[in-house]
Amino acid sequence: MKLARDTWIIMVQSLTISLRQRLWGVIGLAQPLYFVILFGPLWERSLRMSEQDSYATFLPGIFIEVAVFGTLFAGIGLVGEARAGLIERMRVTPISRSALLLGRCARDILMLLVQAVILVLVAIPFGLPVKVVPLALTFLLMSTVAFVATSLSYALALAVESETTLASLANLINVPLMLLSGILIPIAFAPDWLQTLAKVNPVYYAVEASRGLFSGDTTTGALVRALAVVGGVGLLGGFWAVRRFSRAVS
C-alpha cells in the first residue's frame, strides 16, 4: 500500500510539472502525426493494399514506435532534476525508492496513451478500422513497451548525467529497434538474414502482435509471446533502474 501511495504521489507531481510544459506535448505528438498523414498513404500504393488494410497494418506499428521513441528521451528531464539537486533532496524523505521510478513511468505511460487516442482519432478518416478489444490490447502492449523504454531512459540518465549524451544514446538505440521491428516496412519483405536478426528485437514481437490484433487474429499466441518477451526485458530494465535510483538517493 505504501508503494502504491508513493507511486501515486510521484505520478501526480510529475504530471503536474509536465502539463505546465505544453509545447513538449505538441512536439511529442508531431512526429507520429507526420507518419500517419504523410507516410501512411504511401503504403496503399507501394504495397498495393486497400486503404483500410494499409492503415490496419501500418498504424499498429506506429503505436509501438511512439511507445519507444516517445519514452526513450524521458530521462532528459531527470538529468536536469539531478543537476538541480532534486534527486539529492529525496534522501531525507521516507518515500519509496521504487516509487521514484514507478511514478515517473506511470506519468509517461499515461501521457503516451493520451497521444495514442489522438492518433486513433486522426487516423479514422484515413480508413483505420477501430475495434475496442484489439485497440485495448494494443494499448496494453504500448504500455508494456513504454515501461521498458522509460526504465532504460531513467537508468541511463542517472548513469551518464548529460542531456546530450542521453539523447545520442536514445537515438542510437531507437534506430535499430525501429528498423528491425518492421514498423515502417513489414519484416516479411526483408531478406532472410534481416528476418533472423529481427527476432532478437523485443519490439518486433510487439509490432507483430499489434498488427495481428488489428487484422482480426483472435488467437492469443502472438500477444502472449510479445507480453512475455517485452515483460521479461521490462523486469530486467526496471530492476536496473530501481538500483540506479536507490544509489542516487541513498
How would you characterize this protein structure?
The two termini are 22 Å apart. The mean pLDDT is 79. α10 crosses α11 (221-248). It is globular, with a radius of gyration of 18 Å. It is mainly alpha-helical. The relative contact order is 0.15. It has helices at 2-19, 22-46, 51-72, 75-83, 86-89, 97-123, 132-160, 163-179, 192-198, 202-214, 221-248. The protein is built from eleven helices and no strands. It is 80% helix and 0% strand. The longest helix has 29 residues, at 132-160.
Features:
250 residues; mainly alpha; 0% strand; globular; 11 helices
The percent of residues in helical segments reads over 70%
End-to-end separation: 22 Å
Number of E-type strands: 0
Q: Largest beta sheet, briefly?
A: none
- Output the helix-strand order: HHHHHHHHHHH
Question: Which regions contain 5 or more consecutive residues with pLDDT less than 50?
Answer: none
- The quaternary structure here is single chain
Mean pLDDT: 79
The outline comes out as: globular
In percent terms, what proportion of residues is strand? Answer: under 5%
**Helical stretch tally:** 11
Helix and strand composition category:
mainly alpha
Radius of gyration: 18 Å
